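Friendly challenge for the regulars: who can give me the structure tokens for this chain first? No prize, just bragging rights.
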Amino acid sequence: MPSVFRSINGVQTEKYIAKMRGVQADLRGRAFEIKARAEAILAEHRHDGDAKIEIDKGWVDHYVILNDKRGQYAAKSIEWGRAAGSYIKVVNGEEIEVTYGAMEGLYVLTRASNLPKKKRPKVEVDPRGRPS
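First reply, four minutes later:
Bragging rights claimed.
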């Protein structure tokens, strides 16, 4: 009967395998492929913006990130869309209502990684640039 070892050289079997050079090389390659597809999908969109695709490496995993450092958390809206809404802005002591329309998500990372789209609620936009 075969034996299953819980650790190899004192390291959990899963972590040992995950850190192997071949496994890490494959993860790096897959992250690069997803990044390339995501950049192409993002470039197809008609709006030029500050959003970009990056790869970050954790201890084991590689992460493909949609980054938009404008401080408006726009990456979330780009990926999943946003609901229509409005907010009050004060200009020269006068309150003005600013409205914005709904936007369908582009699902850049979802499509690039060939994952199924999940129904998510539209992002509610906070005028101060923070998610609500």
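The chain has four helices and eight strands. The beta strands are 7-8, 11-12, 52-57, 62-67, 81-82, 85-91, 94-100, 103-104. Your move, everyone else.
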